[in-house]
Design goal:
single chain, alpha/beta, Aspartate Aminotransferase, domain 1, Aspartate Aminotransferase, domain 2, 18 strands, globular, binds ligand KE4
Length: 431
């Protein structure tokens, strides 16, 4: 705290809002869903980060997924420093890009070829364009509650009626840009079958988060993904798994290995950059061969495959392959969810949670949601009180009820247990 007891975070937030809309470079960081002042982070290490007042938090955001090995991991920092010493960016190919591409293809066999980009938005936007270019079709299918970045044709919410095309969720997106986007309900098989029955041969692709992390954590049912795969195969539609968040997060083979489903294209991000801007899209070679410069589908990027970012990503991909990495990560997430659920039960608060690999969700309602509507029925007001109670206790969860949470390899039992003890105190206080 500064001398006059005004938080440095408040001072920085007021200053930031003068030069940047909302004072942030990505909306969720502004705390508008939970209220209060965003924490300006000064440094991070392992499972922790510190704000401008010097307060330490146990961090369950992990930069929204990338910090899976823990913040400022010595091996990652060393790799970044070594790469940076050789120059930051060349605009020309490097061997490191080949190495990370080969590693991604080895770890995710559905990816026969891969193109590196700098954000998850670029990855999904490019995958959509490729699907449309390869099929010559315009229509795309997404699901309510799934977020795939901010490309125009994906900023769309369900239309008014059943199987009606979407309406823009953002100003500045012309109706024309979303008239080919059909928004269906997650985990709703009959609706998906109806869509294909009525227009299947005009659908270029279906894009889905196979483990959804943008409507809090919601698992796809195996039957939903299996039926999706069958329908896409039957109608020649490209199946795109958006694994920007769940890729290398729910397991070394991502959600596609967890469910045993082979998508035609996969979007990746977050973990493959280890905290620096690396994302990717890839899949069947016959599709990827249609990408410029050898094919008709254009895509480009000044910093695509950036050598310093690739060094962070590659060192992270090596660390997640250590023996037992995902067993420990999954056990930590499950320990957290179980501990929070028990603490809430003791306080008589309706609460449940779920964890898939190193990502988790908790819900202020009685049952784990399997649809967007069920998740949104959660007690938002209680969530917000819990969020701020935990923040005061030095635990930083996602500042919005519709976000998932993330543990790292550095979230030891002691760190998890410290979190649960704090929650026990907060549940008692908020009632
Ligand atoms: P980026 O363009 O933010 O790198 O990735 C977009 C994206 C694509 N697909 C999925 C499944 C994603 O989760 C994301 C981005 N995730 C959000 C978390 N809800 C990033 C946090 C933010 O928007 O600030």
């Amino acid at each position: 705290m500064t001398t006059d007891s005004t938080s440095k975070n408040e001072i920085l937030f007021a200053r930031a809002q003068q030069s940047t809309p909302g004072g942030v470079n990505s909306p969720v960081r502004a705390f508008r869903s939970v209220g209060g002042t965003p924490r300006f982070i000064t440094r991070a290490e392992g499972p922790y980060f510190w704000d401008a007042d010097g307060k330490r938090y146990i961090d369950y955001i992990g930069s929204w997924g990338p910090a899976i090995v823990g913040h400022a991991h010595p091996q990652v920092i060393k790799a970044v420093q070594a790469a940076a010493a050789n120059g930051l960016s060349f605009g020309a190919p490097t061997e490191g890009e080949i190495e990370i591409a080969e590693e991604i293809c080895r770890l995710l066999p559905s990816i026969e070829q891969v193109r590196l980009v700098s954000s998850g938005t670029e990855a999904t936007m490019s995958a959509l364009r490729l699907a449309r270019g390869a099929t010559g079709r315009d229509k795309i299918v997404k699901f309510e509650g799934c977020y795939h970045g901010h490309a125009d044709s994906l900023l769309v919410k369900a239309g008014s009626g059943l199987l009606t095309f979407g309406n823009p969720t953002s100003a500045g997106v012309p109706e024309d840009f979303v008239k080919h986007t059909l928004v269906l309900d997650y985990n709703n098989i009959p609706q998906l079958e109806d869509a294909f029955a009525s227009m299947g041969d005009t659908i270029a692709c279906v894009i889905v988060e196979p483990v959804a992390g943008n409507m809090n954590l919601i698992r796809a049912t195996p039957e939903f993904l299996q039926r999706m795969r069958e329908l896409c195969t039957e109608y020649g539609t490209v199946l795109i798994f958006d694994e920007v968040m769940c890729g290398f997060r729910v397991g070394l083979g991502g959600a596609q290995e967890l469910y045993g489903i082979t998508p035609d294209l996969t979007a990746l991000g977050k973990v493959i950059g280890g905290g620096l801007p690396v994302a990717a899209f890839g899949g069947r070679a016959d599709l990827m061969q249609k990408m410029a410069p050898i094919g008709p589908v254009y895509q480009a990027g000044t910093l695509s495959g950036n050598p310093v970012a690739v060094a962070a990503g590659m060192s992270t991909l090596k660390l997640i392959q250590e023996p037992g990495f995902y067993e420990r990560l999954g056990a930590a997430a499950q320990r957290l969810v179980d501990g929070l659920t028990e603490a809430a039960r003791e306080a008589g608060i309706p609460f449940c949670g779920d964890a898939v690999g190193g990502m988790f969700g908790f819900y202020f309602n009685h049952d784990i949601p399997s649809t967007y509507g069920q998740m949104m029925a959660g007690d938002k007001e209680r969530f917000n009180r819990f969020f701020h109670g935990m923040l005061d206790e030095g635990v930083y969860f996602a500042p919005a009820m519709f976000e998932a949470g993330f543990v790292s390899a550095q979230h030891t039992d002691a760190v998890i247990d410290e979190t649960v003890e704090a929650a026990r105190r907060v549940f008692k206080r908020i009632g």
